[in-house]
C-alpha cells in the first residue's frame, strides 16, 4: 500500500460524520453569494435584456432605459475595456451583436433595485433582423451544422468483425438533456476596494477560471482580481463554466460605476439562459455471437452543443470513452461530433458525457436481448470486463474482479432470481399492472481527461495554540467536500476534527486551481491537504522527539496528543505547537498534489486518461400502470465501490442522491423547446418546476438498500478512497431497463420494447400500447442486412 493510501491508527477519516454545514443548512443561516450582497446598502442590481428570437442580428437603443427611475447604467459592448468574451474558446461574446438563442443576454441594466432594473431592461429597444435557426439535432445533421472537434475511438477492425458476426443489428438511440435545477441560481457579487482590487463573490465551481475570464474582460492581469466562493447551493456541473460571464458583468459594472454590483438570476432566467446536459443522438451497428457476446460496435454519436462550444468537446470525449460502460467489446469504431444549434450552450452535468455514452450500449443490450432470445441480465453478465482486458482506448481495466464481485453481490443481496420468479407469478395474474426487476453495472473513469487539470494546491496553518486552518482550491457544492477535507487534515495531524477550520475558497490563497468537477475534488484537494499537513507534522515530530525522547520515527500523533512509543511520554498537540513556534519551526505549509500515471492523447483518443475506475451495480424493481404509464420504484439494491470511504455518511448521501438524479433524467425530466416556425421558435417551453418534472418524495423507492464494497482500498488515492460524486448516477440505468421489461410484459414473448428517454408516463403508456398490439418480435432493432423497416429510434 502506498504512503498516500495508508491510514494511521485512530484515523478521523472513515468515521461517519455529519456534513460540516448541516446545522447551518437546516436552520437557514448558511451564507451564500447573494446573502453577501444583501448585507450591503449601496448595491446596484444587474438585469439582462434577453433576446426574443433564437437567431437574429440585433441593434440596441439603451436611451429609453436610462429614463426609467432608478436606472444608473446600461452595459453594452462599448463598455468592455478588454476582451468581449465570456468563455475560454473565444466563441462566446459577452455582449453579442447577433442573438444566438432565445433568451440570449444582449445587454445588462444596472439599477438601484431589482424592480427598477427589470423595468429598465423591458424599456431597452431592440431591433431584430431574424435569421434562420437550428433547434434540433436532426436539423443540425441535415444542414451539416457542426462545431469543434470530431474524435474517434477505435480498436481493431469493426467493419470486418460486423461482416463476419452471426448476428448484426442496427438502430438509433436518442437521449434527452437535463436541467441542473440547483436550489441556488447563478449569482455573482463584485466590488472594487480602495486599492483597485476587483473582489468577486461567485457561485462558481471553478474560481480560478472565473478569475481569468473576469480579468480578460476587464483587460487587467489576474492578480488584480480575487474570486471567493463561500459555498454553492448545488452545482452538478452547471456552475463549472457558465458563472464566468456573469461574474464578468458584475465586475464590469462595479468598475464602471464605482459601486458594488449584485447579479442573481431568477429561476426563469436561469432556466432560459444557462446550459443543460447535452442531448445525444446515436446511430449504431452491433454484432453478437450465438452466445450473446458482443463482437463489434460501430456508432456515430452526435451531441447537441447549443450555440457555442463551452465544454462540449471534453464532454464528447468522455462519452466516447464510456460507450463501452462495463463491457468488453473486441472491435470498436465510435465517432463523435458536436451539433451547433440555436439553443443555450450545453455544458457540464454530473457524469460529463459518461451517462450519454453508457446510454448507447445499455440501450443496445436492452433491445437486442429479446431478439437474441437471451435474458437481459445474463446478456449483460456474459459481457462484463474480465481481469487483463483493456478499454477501446487502451487502458487496462484494473480491478475488474471487483466488477464481477459487485455483480454477484447485487444478485445475491437483492434475491434477484427469487424475486423474478415472484414477479412472473404476479404478472400472470395482473393484466393491468406489471412488474419487473433489472440489473445494470457501472464502470466510470476518474480523472479529468484534460490532464493538466489533475492537480491541486492547499495552504495549511497550525497556530501556536494548536488550532488548524485549512485553505484548499475545491468548492463546496453541498456534496461534503469540506467535511472530507476536515477529516483528512485531522487525520494527517492527529487532532480532533473540532480543532480544524476551513477558510472560504479564494484565488488569492490557493492559485491556479482546477474545477471542482470530474468527481475528483476529494482525490485532488485531499492529496494536497495531506501533503501540507504531512510537512508540518514531520517538522513538529523532530521537536517532539527532542522533548519526549526517542527517535522521530517513534513519534505518534492521534486524538490531539503527541506521544513517543520509545518512552511512553506524551503531550497535547497544542503544547507541541507552542514549543515548535518558540524553536522557530515553520508551522504552515503549501501542499500540492498531481495525479500520477496519466497519459492521454486526445487527438488519437488513446492512452490512460483515468487514475482508476469506480465500479457499481444496481438492481431495481418497478411497477408500471398499464392505464397511465406511471412507474413506481418498489425496491432498489446497490453495491458500490468507494474504495476506503473518507466519510461513509457523506458517500451514502452521494450514492442515493446521484441514483435519484439519474432516475429523474431517465424517467421524468423532459426539456422541450418550441420547434415550430412561429415567432417563439427556439423558446424553452419547460421554464419552471410546473412544466419540468423533478423527482420528489413520491418517486423515491419504497425500499432503498445501499452497500459499499469492502476491502476495496484504492492504492495511490488519498487514504485509499475513491471518488463517488458521479459514478452512482449511472446506476439509474437499472430503472430504465426495468421499465422496459415491465412494458414488455404487456406484450407477447420476444417483443422488443422501443422506449423513449426520458421514459415519462406518457412515453411509457404508448410503449405499452405498442406492446399490447404486437404479435411477435415487432419493434426489434432490425438485422443489418434486412431490407424492410427503417432503423428504430429510441
Please estimate the helix content. Answer: 25-40%
Mean pLDDT: 96
Give the terminus-to-terminus CA distance: 46 Å
Secondary structure: number of strands: 30
Q: Based on helices, strands and strand pairing, what is the structural class?
A: alpha+beta
* Poorly predicted tracts of residues: 785-794
Largest sheet: 8 strands, mixed
How would you write the strand order of the largest sheet? 3-5-1-13-10-11-12-21
Shape: globular
Give me the oligomer status.
single chain
Number of helices: 20
Radius of gyration: 28 Å
Strand content: 15-25%
Helix and strand topology:
Elements: H1 22-27, H2 33-38, E1 44-50, E2 56-61, H3 63-66, E3 71-75, E4 98-99, E5 105-111, H4 114-123, E6 125-130, H5 137-143, E7 146-147, E8 152-155, H6 158-164, E9 167-175, E10 187-192, E11 198-202, H7 207-218, E12 225-229, H8 243-257, E13 261-264, H9 267-273, E14 280-288, E15 294-304, H10 312-321, E16 331-339, H11 354-372, H12 376-382, H13 400-413, H14 416-428, E17 433-446, E18 455-462, E19 468-472, H15 481-493, E20 500-502, E21 505-506, H16 521-548, E22 555-558, E23 561-564, E24 570-572, H17 573-582, E25 588-594, E26 599-601, E27 606-608, E28 612-625, E29 631-640, H18 648-667, E30 703-708, H19 733-744, H20 761-773
Parallel strand pairs: 1-13, 11-12, 15-16, 19-20, 29-30
Antiparallel strand pairs: 1-5, 2-4, 2-6, 3-5, 7-16, 8-16, 9-14, 10-11, 10-13, 12-21, 14-15, 17-28, 18-19, 18-25, 22-23, 23-24, 26-27, 28-29
Amino acid at each position: 500500500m502506498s504512503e498516500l493510501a495508508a491510514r494511521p491508527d485512530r484515523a478521523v477519516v472513515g468515521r461517519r460524520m455529519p456534513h460540516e454545514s448541516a446545522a447551518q443548512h437546516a436552520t437557514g443561516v448558511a451564507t451564500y453569494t447573494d446573502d453577501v450582497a444583501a448585507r450591503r446598502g449601496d448595491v446596484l442590481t444587474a438585469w439582462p435584456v434577453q433576446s426574443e428570437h433564437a437567431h437574429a442580428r440585433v441593434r440596441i437603443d439603451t436611451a429609453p432605459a436610462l429614463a426609467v427611475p432608478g436606472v444608473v447604467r446600461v452595459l453594452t459592448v462599448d463598455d468592455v475595456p478588454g476582451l468581449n468574451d465570456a468563455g475560454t474558446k473565444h466563441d462566446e461574446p459577452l455582449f453579442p451583436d447577433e442573438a444566438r438563442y432565445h433568451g440570449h443576454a444582449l445587454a445588462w441594466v444596472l439599477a438601484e433595485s431589482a424592480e427598477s432594473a427589470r423595468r429598465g431592461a423591458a424599456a431597452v429597444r431592440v431591433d431584430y433582423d431574424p435569421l434562420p435557426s437550428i433547434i434540433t439535432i436532426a436539423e443540425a445533421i441535415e444542414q451539416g451544422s457542426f462545431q469543434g472537434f470530431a474524435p474517434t475511438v477505435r480498436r481493431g477492425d469493426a467493419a470486418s468483425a460486423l461482416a463476419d458476426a452471426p448476428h448484426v443489428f442496427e438502430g438509433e438511440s436518442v437521449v434527452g438533456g437535463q436541467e441542473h435545477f440547483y436550489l441556488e441560481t447563478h449569482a455573482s457579487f463584485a466590488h472594487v476596494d480602495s486599492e483597485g482590487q476587483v473582489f468577486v463573490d461567485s457561485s462558481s465551481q471553478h474560481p480560478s477560471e472565473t478569475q481569468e475570464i473576469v480579468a480578460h474582460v476587464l483587460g487587467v492581469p489576474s492578480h488584480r482580481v480575487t474570486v471567493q466562493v463561500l459555498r454553492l447551493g448545488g452545482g452538478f456541473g452547471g456552475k463549472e463554466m457558465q458563472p464566468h460571464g456573469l461574474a464578468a458583468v458584475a465586475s464590469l459594472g462595479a468598475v464602471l460605476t464605482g459601486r458594488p454590483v449584485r447579479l442573481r438570476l431568477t429561476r426563469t432566467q436561469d432556466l432560459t439562459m444557462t446550459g443543460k446536459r447535452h442531448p445525444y443522438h446515436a446511430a449504431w451497428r452491433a454484432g453478437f455471437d450465438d452466445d450473446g457476446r458482443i463482437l463489434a460496435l460501430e456508432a456515430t454519436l452526435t451531441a447537441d452543443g447549443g450555440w457555442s462550444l463551452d465544454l462540449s468537446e471534453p464532454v464528447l470525449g468522455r462519452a466516447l470513452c464510456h460507450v463501452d460502460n462495463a463491457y468488453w467489446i473486441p472491435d470498436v469504431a465510435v465517432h463523435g461530433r458536436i451539433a451547433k444549434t440555436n439553443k443555450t450552450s450545453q455544458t457540464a452535468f454530473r457524469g460529463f458525457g459518461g451517462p450519454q455514452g453508457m446510454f448507447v450500449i445499455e440501450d443496445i443490450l436492452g433491445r437486442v436481448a429479446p431478439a437474441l432470445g437471451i435474458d437481459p441480465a445474463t446478456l449483460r453478465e456474459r459481457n462484463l470486463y474480465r481481469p487483463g482486458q483493456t478499454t477501446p482506448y487502451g487502458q487496462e481495466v484494473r480491478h475488474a474482479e471487483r466488477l464481477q464481485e459487485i455483480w454477484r453481490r447485487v444478485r445475491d443481496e437483492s434475491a434477484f432470481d427469487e424475486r423474478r420468479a415472484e414477479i412472473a407469478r404476479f404478472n400472470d395474474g395482473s393484466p393491468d399492472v406489471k412488474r419487473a426487476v433489472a440489473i445494470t453495472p457501472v464502470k466510470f473513469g476518474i480523472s479529468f481527461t484534460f490532464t493538466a487539470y489533475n492537480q491541486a494546491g492547499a495552504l495549511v496553518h497550525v497556530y501556536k495554540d494548536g488550532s488548524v486552518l485549512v485553505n484548499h482550491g475545491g468548492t463546496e457544492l453541498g456534496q461534503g467536500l469540506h467535511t472530507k477535507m476536515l477529516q483528512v487534515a485531522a487525520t494527517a495531524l492527529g487532532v480532533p476534527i473540532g480543532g480544524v477550520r476551513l477558510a472560504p475558497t479564494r484565488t488569492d490563497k490557493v492559485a491556479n486551481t482546477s474545477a471542482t468537477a470530474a468527481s475528483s475534488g476529494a482525490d485532488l484537494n485531499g492529496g494536497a491537504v495531506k501533503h501540507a499537513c504531512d510537512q508540518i507534522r514531520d517538522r513538529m515530530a523532530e521537536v517532539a522527539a527532542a522533548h519526549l525522547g526517542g527517535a522521530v520515527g517513534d513519534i505518534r500523533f492521534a486524538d490531539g496528543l503527541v506521544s513517543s512509543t520509545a518512552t511512553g511520554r506524551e503531550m497535547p498537540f497544542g503544547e507541541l505547537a507552542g514549543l515548535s513556534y518558540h524553536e522557530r519551526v515553520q508551522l504552515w505549509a503549501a501542499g500540492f498534489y498531481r495525479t500520477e500515471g496519466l497519459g492521454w492523447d486526445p487527438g488519437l483518443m488513446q492512452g490512460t486518461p483515468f487514475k482508476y475506475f469506480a465500479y457499481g451495480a444496481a438492481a431495481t424493481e418497478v411497477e408500471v400502470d398499464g392505464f397511465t404509464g406511471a412507474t413506481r420504484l418498489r425496491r432498489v439494491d446497490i453495491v458500490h465501490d468507494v474504495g476506503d470511504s473518507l466519510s461513509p455518511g457523506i458517500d451514502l448521501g452521494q450514492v442515493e442522491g446521484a441514483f435519484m438524479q439519474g432516475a429523474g433524467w431517465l424517467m421524468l425530466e423532459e426539456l422541450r423547446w418550441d420547434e415550430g416556425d412561429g415567432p417563439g421558435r427556439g423558446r424553452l417551453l419547460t421554464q419552471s418546476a410546473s412544466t419540468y418534472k423533478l423527482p420528489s418524495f413520491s418517486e423515491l423507492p419504497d425500499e432503498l438498500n445501499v452497500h459499499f464494497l469492502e476491502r476495496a482500498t484504492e492504492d495511490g488515492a488519498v487514504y485509499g478512497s475513491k471518488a463517488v460524486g458521479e459514478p452512482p448516477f449511472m446506476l439509474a440505468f437499472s430503472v430504465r431497463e426495468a421499465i422496459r421489461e415491465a412494458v414488455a410484459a404487456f406484450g407477447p414473448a420476444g417483443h422488443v420494447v422501443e422506449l423513449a428517454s426520458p421514459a415519462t408516463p406518457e412515453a411509457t403508456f404508448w410503449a405499452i400500447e405498442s406492446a399490447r398490439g404486437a404479435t411477435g418480435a415487432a419493434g426489434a432493432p432490425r438485422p443489418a442486412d434486412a431490407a424492410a423497416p427503417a432503423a428504430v429510434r429510441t
